[in-house]
């Protein structure tokens, strides 16, 4: 839609209506500005089309000299802690400053000098770049006609006037250098010609359109809602309205603009658009138009000719695997995928090396999880070739991280071998620090266990304990305790040495824990391999999710609707087919066929048939009325009897009987009422029904002769 | 019969003579129920520490008397089942006791349990108890077993209603259990008990009981409600007093104190009985007092908040400084460990060379001394850094500490000034009251008509001018003394609080400083010792001269 027609620097040759521009999805700047202003005015903004002159790049929609505005900002926002509300009344005595001030000053001078040098080089470099990037000279600069949009303040939260470039949809301040002159400004209310000089840039202009010394109006006066009503009696609107003469712009003859949601999604011509920015290619796609669901892609290049890739960003929508963005770093060979919440494995970010084996935990990769949804509260997992690091958050057992290192496999055992397992726990406030384990380090290959305890308050060293694991095979599976196979350091010089029994218990516990941890790591590795396999499948065979309520793409629903429509059509068709001819039985009785003898009936025959038909109809109606009447009377009397019985006996009835009476009488009353309604309805309807029958017979093709006769007689 | 007896005696330790608890029995029982196998070996090796045992089971020991249990200070669970105990006694020391099992004994009376406030499980199954009593202090009781006793009246069990945390009761086997009403009563009366005889009580069952014992239950409920209300009111009052005590103005809000002053002064209250004008003056006096004291209380409350804020500011500063210094020290220690690693590696290499006889000690000696020296260097660095950090922390906080003490003193002085003014105003009111009292009484002096219905002693006083004046003076004196005492109390408490706080802060800081220094030295000694041990493992066989050289300090 925003594809620019190459515009010569004179006026455009033609001007399509905004409606056509939308249908064609392309147009020259005037047409685009008309579309945009129409939408803006429609939603209540004070917008104008500006006719004037602009730079070549704007007029021709050249963007390879501008910086892409859609590159995501990756700098993290650092929030500074709020300053303390109260001035601190106590402070630490500052340490005496023992460094030489002279030396510092000299150093400072030297550094400044160096910095200056560096800055100079940097400035020169920047200048060179700027020179290289400068566009070639334009022989007709300042003569290229362009149209864009001016937004004036005062409505819907717009405070300051600003411009919008209709071909990009980006706002620019009034003094932006790309717009050079303003000839005129118009919208659906008036046409204003600029009387001001544009030498000092557009920012210096007066945008008060009512100021006649700056803006000449094509149509005299202002529309009512813009007038400065001073000294006019507002109570009588008519007089107030007429106090100033004003001519209106002719009403629009353009068809009403409308863009459906589906049209909006398909706004790029051919569902696909590529914009070339400076060193950047921006691609946009309509949702569902690509097989993998990509909707936007930004490719950042090293060079102006877009040959060497630096970074690629991709945005996805409607993917079943909930992948939302991908960032590919072509220099560091790193891919980062982010996911929406709600995956089965609760993955939210996956960063991995491009060359890493796709389904193995031995490559460099980081998986971040939505820990809250996971039973094991796993928050992050970092794998490299010889390490495996799990991070947990908020676990009940206070485990914070588990770090595993491996050594390379040998020939006999090609798999990598567990070397150390380090488990870190957070401080448990219910247990004294001397009994609260901070780190458990299992040296699997050295057959030792190391325990580091938490630091006590005001302590700079912590308790440690080291075990050399006993050989269970020698003792028949029993854990025996040897004081020389354990050593420890107690940080508190006043504390007692731990009891051997407690040390022994710690040994037993931790031998168990080690086995659990090793099993856990094996399980975890196979789990992650499973996840990675699943990811590989999702990446190679992407599927898109179609919402249940998506009327365009939900194929199953569509099929259902179609079936419904055909069914409905079939029913109506049948109904049309089976139009009932009330004369049919009589004709059949007389001639043996429902369609008579085929020819017109004689007057005599016709009279007979007609008479029979009408008589039967009347009799039927009467009989029906009688039946209903009878039923009504019977029920009504029963109801009245019941009621009398109740009135007589109401004080001696048991509660059960009473409630039974109420329920039956309510039912009876309902039935009586029903019959009554039916009866009145029947009475009301029988006359029109009779009329309808008569009308039908009067138009019956077989009775034409008879009707003509009848008509003739009646007229007489 | 004989056969049965012999069987029984086989089960119940036949060899034990009926007696009392002694050390040997305790040790034996603890060992018997302690850990088994390897852990048991270590447990036995270490010896039994009676004051550390958390659980002691003295079952089937034919104990006649509970005694000698005061050693078991950290006892949490005590089982004295299947003995011959007749009285509950000598349990007062076992304050931490959580579970007490006295089943299958011959106890006739519940008593001497008042000290066991933490008791949660109490089992008195199969005894000879007739009455529930003396358990009011056991507020934490959760499980209670009184089955197989001699309780004849099930209404006795309404005693159990007072235990708010009680959830399980076992009652089976009492004489009154034959009465079907018993269980109906128990289920309806003990509303908080979830399990009766270890079976869940359903709401329907409670409902049936409630219908039967409607009147009785209502009476019980009313009594409970009354005591509950009293309890809540008392607790609230105590909480308020406690709260005011924090700002040293307890009992000063409201007319409470002045009323108690008159109560303690019989002369004043006697004279007050004259009535008439005097009552008006009295009311006025009270009003003035309340107003004065309200000002003081408000000021004291504000002062309390300001003080708390000040303490918080100071604490924050000191805590932050401490955290920072600890963090830095930890870094220093980690750095040291990092530096130590290669040295240990070198030393191990030397040792392995020596043990493999690749080199003699003479050849290795320079190497050893070199490594030892570098080790000494890094140890010295460690010491210097750690001590610098600690000394700086101490010195940098010192000024703030002094400032804090000054500020606190200033605040307390201000509070005392305000309180002096308030008490001075009170004394003035008192003087005024005394004067008015005298005037009012003087008008009535000797007026028999007006004093017609006065009590005889008052009448007597009012007939004699001297006696009356004496009484008035005495009352004034009494009151002045009372006021002085209250003011003194406030002043002493405020000053003591300040002294404690300031002194405590200083003491804590000094103690912390000393602890840290001690820790640093201890750590360094440990490191040295470790190093020396490593060298020793090699030099065991070497002549003592070298050993002395290597093991020497720098």
Automatic annotation (TrEMBL), chain A:
What is one process in the GO biological process aspect for this record? flagellated sperm motility
The entry's keywords: Cytoplasm, Cytoskeleton
Q: Does the keyword Cytoplasm apply?
A: yes
Task: Please give the GO cellular component terms listed in this UniProt entry.
Answer: cytoskeleton; motile cilium
Task: Determine if DNA-binding is one of this entry's keywords.
Answer: no
What Pfam families does the entry give? CEPT76_peptidase, DRC7_C, MORN_DRC7
State where the protein is found: Cytoplasm, Cytoskeleton
Task: Please list the residue ranges annotated as the Dynein regulatory complex subunit 7 C-terminal domain.
Answer: 601-705
**Start and end residues of each CEP76/DRC7 peptidase-like domain:** 144-218
Q: Which InterPro entries match?
A: CEPT76/DRC7_peptidase-like_dom (IPR056290), DRC7/lobo (IPR033551), DRC7_C (IPR056292), MORN_DRC7 (IPR056291)
Principal subcellular localisation of the protein: cytoplasm
Annotated Dynein regulatory complex subunit 7 MORN domain residues: 269-547
Identification of the protein by name: Dynein regulatory complex subunit 7
This chain's source organism reads Bicyclus anynana (Squinting bush brown butterfly)
Upper lineage: Eukaryota, Metazoa, Ecdysozoa, Arthropoda, Hexapoda
UniProtKB/TrEMBL annotation, chain B:
InterPro entries on file: Cilia_flagella_integrity, Leu-rich_rpt, LRR_dom_sf
Query: GO CC terms for this protein?
Result: cilium
Task: Quote the SMART domains the UniProt record gives.
Answer: LRR_SD22 (SM00365)
Per its UniProt entry, which superkingdom is the organism in?
Eukaryota
**What Gene3D superfamilies does its record include?**
Ribonuclease Inhibitor
Repeat as UniProt keyword: yes
The keyword Thylakoid is annotated on this UniProt entry: no
Cellular localisation: Cytoplasm, Cytoskeleton, Flagellum axoneme
Q: Name the SUPFAM superfamilies on file.
A: Outer arm dynein light chain 1 (SSF52075)
Q: Which UniProt keywords apply?
A: Cell projection, Cilium, Coiled coil, Cytoplasm, Cytoskeleton, Flagellum, Leucine-rich repeat, Repeat
Question: What's its job?
Answer: Cilium-specific protein required for cilia structures.
Give the protein family: Belongs to the DRC3 family.
For this entry, the protein name equals Dynein axonemal assembly factor 1 homolog
**Lineage of producing organism:** Eukaryota, Metazoa, Ecdysozoa, Arthropoda, Hexapoda
